[in-house]
## 1
Amino acid sequence: EAQVTQNPRYLITVTGKKLTVTCSQNMNHEYMSWYRQDPGLGLRQIYYSMNVEVTDKGDVPEGYKVSRKEKRNFPLILESPSPNQTSLYFCASRTLDRINYGYTFGSGTRLTVV
Amino acid sequence: KQEVTQIPAALSVPEGENLVLNCSFTDSAIYNLQWFRQDPGKGLTSLLLIQSSQREQTSGRLNASLDKSSGRSTLYIAASQPGDSATYLCAVLSGAGSYQLTFGKGTKLSVIP
């Protein structure tokens, strides 16, 4: 089944403790992206990647890092999490071969930083 | 910078009614527009994708239209059911070279039995 898999689904952590949220897709998509969703603010893009070793900032990159060493994986790294990073996070991917195809989203990771 | 607005923010209708959700965007240079459904605390389910060259798409009781020149899209839901209760998100793909998907804040739909 074609899918984007995020782990973990739920995470509670303490301020300052480094964490990684993993994202993997099995569709050989070139483009991958991370979003966060907050009440009243909607979904906002954090980082995106057009291909292996190519990443760029989205609208709200502060406090986050990403890497794209393999085509299928795009982990989101919070080096020193803070309470304002408590949010619902989504990973998404798409092909760049056919621009009019849509995005596929993961099931989300609910992160709480205390 | 692309901005997407959805009106209304919330809508409550009795079961069986037909309804329309609205989406507007500021930059008409889009590749496509996608409507998603999101249940509380859950992921995004793609409902319909309209390409920039298309005027509408249909899937079952759902019909989405696109007027690119005026920056508007509507999602029509026929014969609404309680199971349609969810938040509906409109997203446009734009940005030459960056292919950014910009979301509206959604319309929260409640269908009352």
## 2
Amino acid sequence: GAVVSQHPSRVICKSGTSVKIECRSLDFQATTMFWYRQFPKQSLMLMATSNEGSKATYEQGVEKDKFLINHASLTLSTLTVTSAHPEDSSFYICSASEGLQETQYFGPGTRLLVL
Amino acid sequence: KQEVTQIPAALSVPEGENLVLNCSFTDSAIYNLQWFRQDPGKGLTSLLLIQSSQREQTSGRLNASLDKSSGRSTLYIAASQPGDSATYLCADAAPGQGGKLIFGQGTELSVKP
């Protein structure tokens, strides 16, 4: 089956620093990748959609200059949280699909804690 | 704007009981609807996906139904087991939205031995 990995699984950083999270599709080519954020006891909220080789499309209210998304290859997308603040502490989950409207396969998530 | 709601937010049942989780959505123009399982601190595991043209899907002890006219989907779990304890999320994909999923808040299920 399709496997999506995320690295790191958890990260702790100081306020003001930047953190990069990787999302990889291990056995298929992911034309489209999605990034979600989940706060405790809440549901997943879509942050942005990225298509390989083009700029990401951000959801309303998500700062594109703060959450930098790069989808440079068909197997890798990265989310960089710049100048992290404690309120950015959350569970970040990516998903990948082989195309629009295709099944999304979810990664295991990355727990970010900003001190 | 599509909204997805799940009721109840939490449910506790004794082992062996059959149960139903509910999911409602405001816009019936959906492409498909999925049910996911999420264990604490983990990612999502897809359980069942129902296309808009389908009425139900079954996998083992799980059965998901879809009624677009009423904007509802249910996940039926037969003979529940403690291992079924997790948060169950439903999400729908709207046509022409590039595969974007709108998630409900989830139902936290606890099956007591």
